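Retry 2 of 3 after timeout on previous attempt. Resubmitting structure tokens to design endpoint.
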């Protein structure tokens, strides 16, 4: 067999392998994902009193004893429209809650109350983050897709805080309850690429901005994922997510600030079509 014959054999084989290598399309027609989010959390807050006195900047993990890491159920669902799957829609949500009991190491001014050092503290915390987005993949090929889009993210935070201290000199019992929620518009960019048979990867970056009204602030959300589909319609997605949100609240009875950072891996089972 001469070189010309070898080339004639290799070219069709290379074309077959190339086509087989990109069996997973960059964008799915429809998908549902359910999994677990191992989140490292860092929550800083401040609640000022109605007379304008500044409250204490409090870290829920270091000052109040809430867990640095939490497990959360994560889900997302979405799909695409158009002949080339250029228009993608996605919805997601996850939430986690925690409880803490400890002795306070310093005085904390929260709204109208002072939580004294050495007081017995008990509290609960619940955080939920959910969102909707639309992405237009204007740069689309058989192997990759890049697009930009818009959406909205909702942040829900509720906390119950209480502390008591009884000594010969004083008897103190204080408590506060907070429940805050806010929608914020979002701009996003996303890139997805088929790697080989059964594999693809992607990255997304979102920026959230809300100004005016009783709630203002901004947030950044970034995600990188690698997906493996051993079957045509079912597989697994390993993701790393980073979210940083900073919100200011203007209320009739207090002003406040919340800075929440959560980050960590997500392992998601994905059903796709």
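Retry 2 succeeded. Sequence:
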């Amino acid at each position: 067999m001469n070189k010309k014959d070898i080339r004639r054999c290799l070219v069709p084989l290379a074309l077959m392998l190339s086509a087989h290598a990109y069996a997973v399309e960059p964008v799915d027609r429809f998908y549902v994902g359910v999994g677990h989010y191992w989140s490292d959390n860092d929550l800083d807050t401040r609640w000022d009193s109605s007379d304008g006195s500044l409250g204490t900047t409090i870290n829920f993990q270091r000052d109040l004893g809430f867990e640095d890491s939490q497990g959360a159920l994560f889900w997302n669902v979405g799909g695409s429209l158009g002949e080339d799957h250029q228009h993608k829609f996605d919805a997601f949500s996850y939430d986690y809650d925690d409880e803490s009991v400890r002795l306070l190491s310093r005085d904390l001014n929260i709204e109208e109350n002072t939580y004294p050092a050495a007081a017995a503290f008990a509290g609960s915390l619940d955080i939920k983050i959910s969102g909707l987005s639309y992405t237009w993949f204007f740069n689309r090929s058989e192997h990759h897709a890049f697009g930009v889009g818009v959406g909205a993210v909702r942040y829900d935070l509720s906390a119950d805080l209480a502390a008591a201290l009884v000594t010969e000199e004083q008897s103190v019992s204080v408590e506060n309850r907070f429940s805050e929620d806010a929608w914020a518009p979002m701009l996003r960019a996303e890139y997805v690429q088929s790697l080989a048979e059964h594999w693809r990867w992607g990255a997304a970056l979102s920026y959230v901005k809300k100004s005016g009204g009783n709630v203002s602030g901004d947030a950044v959300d970034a995600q990188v994922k690698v997906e493996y589909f051993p079957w045509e319609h079912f597989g697994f997605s390993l993701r790393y997510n980073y979210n940083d949100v900073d919100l200011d609240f203007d209320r009739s009875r207090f002003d406040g600030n919340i800075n929440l950072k959560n980050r960590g891996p997500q392992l998601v089972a994905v059903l796709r079509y």
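Attempt log closed. The first strand starts at residue 30 and ends at 48.
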